[in-house]
Amino acid sequence: MSGPSITEIEADIEQTREQLTETIDALGAKLDVKSKAASHWQEIAVVAATTVAVVIAWKKL
Predict the structure, then answer these.
(1) Which residues, in sequence order, are CB contacts of 12 under 8 Å at separation 6+?
(2) Nearest-5° Cα angle at 46, 34 to 30
């Protein structure tokens, strides 16, 4: 009984490495709390600034 060839094994190893890299990158993105917090605060700042601008414009009417 013959098993997979060396080329097939090497291809399988490369595919596994690529999948592991994608998984690690995805986990890193999920665990990047600092980046998520900064993004969240940027969104809050934009909403707050827009709200202030609308209130000022509305008061001038």
Answers:
(1) 4
(2) 25
CA 16, chain centre distance (Å) = 21
Query: Smallest Cα–Cα separation from 49: which of 60, 57, 38?
Result: 57
Residues 6+ apart with CB under 8 A from 4: 12
12-55 pLDDT, tens digit each: 999 999 999 999 999 998 888 888 888 888 999 999 999 999 99
pTM: 0.51
Residue ranges covered by each domain of the chain: 6-60
